[in-house]
């Protein structure tokens, strides 16, 4: 039985896994950032400190578990906001030390990918077969990863600048939507025409992505149109959101299609916060028919940041005795 903690950004989460079955996954969000239009790192650390004990307590209760039953304590080691990571790391170390059980440090992006293997007690689920390709799309990352085994992964390509989640959130901010704008932009996009407005494609070689140019193009597009009509955004909100979202999805999938063709891999997964996007989920389902791909999309609960994915990854690390020392430190940046 492993207790896991996730605190890499602005969600405090705790989960309990027992013999590979997820018993509990409890997450507390942080509304304090809304008024600033983005995550304020220092406020995030303070909220984690306030939330961590109640969240861990709730996860243990939900799982019907006692501290004395734990075989290990796991935490997100990185990448993420250093102050936020420190809270989860320090808490996990103290608990592991007090209980005299091993400590397991988990890579946040590896965990997003392994969220595909989360099963609750009594649940049956079709999981990706190795090797598979995973498009990992979050607020901080955009990568195509070739997954050879649970703990063996290779990044085929990634973004050179902004992550696609940022491209969603920053565009949402430009059109006046509150933070985090990604889910709201998605909501408007469902009512709009995805072909009404066109945005330029950036030409990057191989599987490399770039989103900062697209974001600037979007900003210029909005400014130019607002000069002609001050109410342009209000009048065209659904079409603006649908067209921009369609463009981002196209950019993401063009490279994924190329990677699938080049590697001959037809097991295709998506992971990370942006995998909650309805347009991306729909397009991937369509592609599964067109390309004869087996497509894997995580449950909504496991798309955005959660400790269940940390617990799942820790379970595989526990099985091969991959523990970390008590002087392990969190890392804002960390290679997969
Ligand atoms: O994985 P995640 O929860 O945190 C990070 O590790 O970054 O991802 C958060 C990102 C944010 O940029 C958020 O706007 C985006 O995921 N996101 C979405 C949707 N739901 C979350 N973006 C587009 N459409 C959504 N439905
Ligand atoms: Zn994440």
Quickly give the structural class: alpha/beta
How far is the N terminus from the C terminus?
A: 25 Å
Mass-distribution shape = globular
Helicity range: 40-55%
Strand order of the largest sheet: 3-2-1-4-5
Mean pLDDT across all amino acids: 96
Alpha plus pi helix count:
9
Order of helices and strands: EEEHEHEHEEEHHHHEHEH
Q: What small molecules does this complex bind?
A: 5'-O-[(R)-(carboxyoxy)(hydroxy)phosphoryl]adenosine, zinc ion
Which regions contain 5 or more consecutive residues with pLDDT less than 50? none
Largest sheet: 5 strands, mixed
Whole-angstrom Rg: 20 Å
Give the percentage of residues in beta strands.
15-25%
DSSP summary, beta strand count: 10
Short description:
The protein is an alpha/beta fold and 336 residues long. It contains nine helices and ten strands. The chain is globular.
Q: How does this model look, in words?
A:
The protein has nine helices and ten strands. It is α/β, with parallel strands linked by helices and 336 residues long. Strands 3-2-1-4-5 form a five-stranded mixed beta sheet, with helices on both faces. Strands 8-7-6-9-10 form a five-stranded mixed beta sheet, with helices on both faces. The longest helix has 32 residues, at 232-263. It is globular, with a radius of gyration of 20 Å. Residues 9, 138-140, 165, 168-169, 180, 182-183, 186, 272-274, 276-277, 304-305 line the site of 5'-O-[(R)-(carboxyoxy)(hydroxy)phosphoryl]adenosine.
